[in-house]
Amino acid sequence: MDYRVVAHRVDANGSLAQAKSAEVVLGTDMAGRQDAFNPVELLLAALAACMIKGVERVAPMLAFQFTTVEVRLEADRQDSPPKLVAIRYEIVMGSDEPDARLDLMHRNILKYGTISNTLAGAVPLAGSLRRA
What we know:
Radius of gyration: 17 Å
Distance between the termini: 34 Å
Low-confidence stretches: none
Structural class: alpha+beta
Number of strands: 6
Strand order of the largest sheet: 1-2-3
Mean pLDDT: 96
Number of helices: 3
């Protein structure tokens, strides 16, 4: 599969990214914006979306029953050179499935996630899946 995103600077306060018919406001100014994701937040949101999509992909194959999914993420950044040095996550699921099935879901989310696999190759990625 190929993916395409086009981003452009709107003004000194931000930018806009477009893919298909969707748009995302980007916080690219130096002061930061409360109404837009900065680049690190956008990366973490992509990881969260990957994990949630993984649940949607795997649940029917495993006949896995759930009601809710929430992904909580934190990242540590070093200044010189600027890069992320750790990402931590917690996946919280509303489910009555046994613990062993929750563990199976967690393994499958990580195994088949394009973004999670890509990031895990570049930065330590650690976390857990727990029942809500």
